[in-house]
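step: validate -> pass
step: tokenize input -> pass
step: predict -> running
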Amino acid sequence: MDDTSIVKLLWDRCEQALKELAAKYGRFCHKIALNILGVSEDAEECVNDTYLSVWNSIPPQRPSVLPPYVGRIAKNHALNMYNKKHAEKRGGSNLTLVFEELDEVIAGYESADSALYRQELLSVINEFLGTLPSDKRKIFVRRYWYADSVKDIAARMHMTENNVSVSLNRMRSRLREILQEGGLLS
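step: predict -> pass
step: emit ->
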């Protein structure tokens, strides 16, 4: 079933929509949550929470593109669960490593106008991603949005893990330069 039909079923409050959503996006959501949480049972719980959130948000929302909408909800549920489970203990997971990598570039900017800073930062990152070749952009997004491991990205992109690591390092360095030039980093 196509995405427009799924959204229409959700809009019409037809329970068949949840079955269609699960059939089409269940593995996608599970992969996102599993990359963040590392435990299949926790990922499955996030996927179920995702279905409920999608059900509750459509209507009033009517997403024009369903995969990023559903993926963002799954990611947010997984991040919330991760934060709850790791509130007192840090380290050891793929997500911690992903955040540490980006922390090198954008750390330490919480202030009274941090919402404005985050908005400007997001704009610069989006512009930066727009300048990247398609394969580099995919690597960056797979790592920092989907929290894929370097190994998984290498397999997906038919590259060596070393090439992926070097690409990520170069992209982070370039992003740091752009942020410094724009006055967002000192």
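step: describe -> The radius of gyration is 18 Å.
step: cleanup -> pass
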